[in-house]
């Protein structure tokens, strides 16, 4: 086992002792202390904030109280020349990276910092300079800073300030401290004259020219976009900033005073608000694990008029602009560090996610769907995945109606769902989880939609028909760096998928045969695995019935209102954009055949019905009308349950081309002569569709489309339908009733789409 030195290597002795340690996330020692220590001195490095961290501290103290530390913690040989005869020392080995330093607490109440990383030396020199400057002006401050004891070469020694922990939130004491710091070096200047402005550009150029595999391309692109959009000729207010103002660097002294430690990254010329933003961002990411939206809202809640004045010198200051400047510096600085760092800890990935979301949110891209696709594929970058049947090589150029099927592991799917649900431009999201896949319907703030299926097992009902893991292994990488399922695997997938569904292969895939029987020979469909698949399919079906059931949509309107065209486009919309199976019914459930079918047969009745114009029947008998209506009403009464169980509970959207409302408003259309109150009374026992659209237009427009009705009839029926729908809407009956003027097709479709989004997501 190697020996760990806790002193400067130039002063290390060869005499060895033994210590105990707690490892970091990388497995290397993070905190080290004497093996015979009776107190957990190393906890002075740790400022608990969350309840989990407080429990952690309690457990550690309990271990020491029961003298179990030798059994619980690992032993390590070490060199401890200046502390080997003392109890009460501890070492923090530092965060990996160029800024790394050892931090040593000794029994004298001193803290020593020893540079390890190449940037730690200038950082310690900077901290020594700032501590001297702050001590010279300490009478101006309400907060405490550590007294500098000595600084020489690569080692800085200062007093340790006794504390009772820290604050988990930004308080008035923090605001007052930042107000006092701002005034120390307050001045105004052009952004172009800020000495860090050129360094930000240099760092971004280096990140572009020397890309790191784990740094998202979209993050660098958005960072550059934010820099380019900034007006470099505008004036900026500057002041002294701590540089790493966080809960763990702002202590609560024993007399409830604020103490600020670790001034290594402090600068005398930073845009105002820097420390305020840093406090909330770092605490939100590292401790509270919040999304960018939550962090941003938290900052806005704290920024009262008084706090704005204290931090920015003016309650009307453009806070978002200063937030932009902070993010440009902060993100470019740390990305340049991580670019040089070989081993990354998990917290770096947390930061990358929040930074990406922050930039997207503040930049407000013109094409939100394209930005979401960029975020999605950045999230896939370091995962094993393959896109199935990708319609366009460039993922950012995916057509609006296109969706994505992505093969990946179940755990990667879970993490990707979490990532996408936190996307800042997301208005709504619908997540449908099944035993073999997760489906997402993501609705953006500008109304665009992206549907994504994350698949870890390729199944049709209870049958597994291909090995998703092997397809991922055999995937090819296209010229845009996207991993896509190989051509051979795509061919087999198409053949099996359409074969198992009993459908013909679409022409766009070329001439392919279907071989559904081959799937049954897979081991996963036999024995206990086969039983497991059937059980999973049953649970998926039950889950769909509860969480993803379908609904009914009806379209009504006089002949020529444009129903057929609208319905055709809506069916495509539901299928392609909303990923919903669709069943179209005409006028009624049709579990009972049309009446004339009893006389002419089904085919003959349909031909006769198609050949006749609406409202041309000659029935005038009340008795005959009652009998005919009773027959059709029975079809509705029984058929609604057939439709419900056959389609709605299985997730289908059932689209009615005309509905029961025709019996209420226009019974003559079905050759009935009945008063409206009779047919209206029957509606009470029927299920109410979720969405109901009455399409109308002015008579001239309708007559230009079809000449089946005269002008007066069009006007009369339109008025009655609109009154009926307005009445239903006012009564707050279940479902929406929309009178929709259908003149411009795209406007009508957009209105329907908006209603579908509210209903479906």
TrEMBL record:
One Pfam family this sequence matches: APH
Gene Ontology MF, one: kinase activity
Annotated SUPFAM superfamilies: P-loop containing nucleoside triphosphate hydrolases, Protein kinase-like (PK-like)
Key words of the record: Kinase, Transferase
Domain Aminoglycoside phosphotransferase as annotated: residue spans: 143-267
InterPro entries assigned: Aminoglycoside_PTrfase, Kinase-like_dom_sf, P-loop_NTPase
UniProt protein name: Thymidylate kinase
């Amino acid at each position: 086992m190697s020996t760990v030195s806790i002193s400067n290597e130039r002063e290390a002795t060869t005499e060895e002792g033994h210590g105990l340690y707690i490892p970091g996330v990388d497995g290397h020692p993070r905190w080290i202390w004497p093996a015979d220590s009776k107190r957990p001195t190393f906890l002075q490095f740790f400022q608990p904030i969350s309840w989990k961290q407080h429990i952690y501290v309690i457990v550690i103290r309990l271990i020491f109280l029961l003298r179990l530390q030798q059994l619980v913690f690992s032993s390590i040989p070490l060199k401890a020349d200046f502390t080997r005869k003392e109890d009460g020392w501890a070492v923090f080995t530092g965060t990996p990276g160029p800024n790394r330093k050892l931090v040593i607490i000794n029994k004298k109440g001193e803290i020593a910092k020893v540079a390890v990383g190449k940037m730690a030396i200038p950082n310690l020199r900077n901290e020594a300079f700032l501590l001297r400057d702050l001590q010279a002006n300490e009478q101006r401050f309400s907060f405490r800073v550590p007294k500098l004891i000595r600084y020489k070469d690569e080692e800085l020694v200062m007093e340790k300030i006794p504390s009772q922990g820290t604050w988990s939130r930004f308080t008035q004491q923090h605001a007052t401290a930042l107000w006092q710091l701002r005034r120390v070096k307050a001045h105004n200047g052009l952004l172009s004259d800020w000495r860090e402005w050129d360094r930000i550009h240099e760092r971004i150029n280096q990140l572009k020219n020397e890309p790191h595999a784990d740094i998202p391309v979209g993050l660098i692109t958005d960072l550059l976009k934010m820099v380019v959009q900034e007006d470099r000729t505008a004036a900026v207010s500057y002041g002294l900033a701590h540089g790493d103002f966080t809960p763990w660097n702002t202590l609560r002294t024993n007399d409830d005073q604020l103490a600020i430690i670790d001034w290594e990254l402090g600068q005398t010329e930073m845009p105002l608000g820097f420390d305020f933003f840093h406090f909330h961002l770092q605490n939100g990411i590292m401790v509270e694990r919040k999304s960018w939206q939550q962090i941003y809202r938290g900052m806005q809640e704290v920024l009262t008029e008084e706090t704005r004045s204290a931090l920015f010198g003016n309650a009307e200051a453009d806070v978002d602009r200063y937030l932009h400047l902070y993010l440009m510096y902060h993100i470019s600085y740390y990305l340049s560090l991580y670019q040089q760092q070989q081993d990354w800890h998990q917290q770096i990935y947390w930061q990358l996610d929040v930074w990406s979301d922050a930039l997207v949110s503040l930049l407000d891209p013109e094409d939100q769907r394209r930005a979401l696709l960029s975020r999605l594929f950045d999230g896939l970058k370091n995962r094993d995945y393959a896109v199935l049947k990708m319609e366009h090589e460039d993922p950012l150029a995916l057509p609006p109606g296109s969706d994505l099927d992505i093969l990946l592991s179940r755990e990667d799917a879970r993490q990707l769902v979490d990532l996408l649900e936190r996307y800042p431009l997301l208005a709504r999201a619908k997540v449908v989880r099944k035993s073999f896949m997760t489906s997402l319907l993501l609705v953006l703030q500008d109304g665009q939609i992206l549907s994504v299926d994350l698949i870890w097992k390729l199944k049709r009902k209870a049958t597994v028909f291909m090995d998703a893991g092997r397809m991922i292994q055999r995937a090819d990488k296209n010229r845009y760096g996207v991993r896509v399922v190989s051509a051979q695997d795509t061919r087999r997938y198409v053949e099996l998928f359409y074969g198992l569904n009993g459908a013909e292969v679409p022409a766009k895939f070329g001439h392919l045969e279907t071989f559904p029987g081959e799937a049954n020979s897979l081991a996963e469909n036999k024995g206990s695995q086969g039983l497991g698949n059937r059980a999973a399919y049953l649970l998926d079906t039950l889950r769909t019935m509860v969480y993803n059931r379908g609904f009914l949509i009806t379209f009504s309107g006089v002949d020529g209102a444009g129903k057929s065209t609208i319905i055709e486009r809506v069916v495509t919309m539901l299928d392609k954009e909303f990923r919903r199976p669709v069943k179209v019914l005409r006028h009624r459930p049709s579990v009972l055949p049309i009446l004339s079918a009893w006389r002419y047969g089904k085919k003959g009745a349909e031909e006769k019905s198609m050949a006749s114009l609406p409202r041309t029947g000659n029935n005038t008998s009340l008795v005959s009308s009652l009998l005919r209506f009773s027959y059709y009403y029975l079809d509705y009464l029984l058929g609604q349950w057939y439709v419900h169980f056959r389609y709605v509970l299985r997730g289908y959207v059932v689209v009615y081309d005309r509905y029961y409302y025709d019996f209420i408003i226009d019974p003559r259309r079905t050759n009935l002569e009945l008063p409206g109150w009779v047919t209206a009374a029957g509606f009470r026992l029927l299920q109410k569709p979720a969405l109901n659209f009455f399409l109308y237009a002015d008579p001239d427009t309708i007559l230009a489309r079809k000449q089946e009705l005269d002008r007066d009839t069009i006007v009369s029926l339109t008025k009655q339908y609109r009154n009926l729908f307005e009445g239903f809407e006012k009564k707050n009956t279940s479902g929406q009733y929309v009178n929709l003027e259908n003149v411009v097709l795209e406007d009508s479709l957009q209105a329907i789409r908006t209603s579908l989004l509210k209903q479906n997501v």
